[in-house]
Amino acid sequence: MKILIIEDDPSLQEIIKKSLEKERYVVETADNYQAALLKLDDYDYDCILLDIMLPGGSGLQILESLKKERRKENVIIISAKDSWEDKVAGLDLGADDYLAKPFHLAELNARIKSVIRRNNHGGEQLITLDNIEVNPSTFEVKVDQQPVDLSRKEYDILLYFINRPNRLINKQTLAESVWGDHIDQVDNFDFIYAQIKNLRKKLKEAGAGPEIKAVYGIGYKLITNN
């Protein structure tokens, strides 16, 4: 899961970033309005933490732009402006949640998980696809109720695919989502092939129904039996 923090306070930004990285999220940051727009023009995210007051513009303008473009990112507004007008404006523009500063990091993490679970998985705690079961809270994977031991990146790749079954995923998009935005500067994506090769082997040995198929020259697709 990849998160973008749009926050101009460097100390708060760093505290949130480190906290979320401990939760195994891929985290990117922007500290002003223009930097945020550049990030959002170039990359996709699973969740955006959005401050309202930003140098160069308003977080509400960013939110309005996201919704006009029909972007699918989950958005949680984090702002010291706790007036009901700002809260209503943000929610009316399509924000998924609103958290007033100061807040506890544990609450922020819980809000992120709740929003992603509600919008991506119909509120379910577990993600299931055929006979594969993934628990994002514990990072556990099971096939036919039997645990499958995956490395962190193997797990991250599987989670990305299981949220997008039967969709063709470009190699660069996958790399950016699992390793971070700056991965687009690498010369090739051979490291992805090695990780997916190991993941496919483990899933096959476990008897998983869905299978990751390579699409020559483009990327990969998680094919289901249904």
From TrEMBL:
Pfam families attached to this UniProt entry: Response_reg, Trans_reg_C
UniProt xrefs under CDD domains: trans_reg_C
UniProt-listed SUPFAM superfamilies: CheY-like
The UniProt record lists the keyword Transcription regulation: yes
Modification 4-aspartylphosphate occurs at: 51
Designated name of the protein: Response regulator transcription factor
Organism: Parabacteroides absconsus
Keyword annotations: DNA-binding, Phosphoprotein, Transcription, Transcription regulation, Two-component regulatory system
The entry's DNA-binding region: 124-224
Domain Response regulatory positions: 2-116
Keyword Transcription applies: yes
Residue ranges annotated for the OmpR/PhoB-type domain, each copy included: 124-224
Record-linked InterPro entries: CheY-like_superfamily, OmpR/PhoB-type_DNA-bd, Sig_transdc_resp-reg_receiver, WalR-like, WH-like_DNA-bd_sf
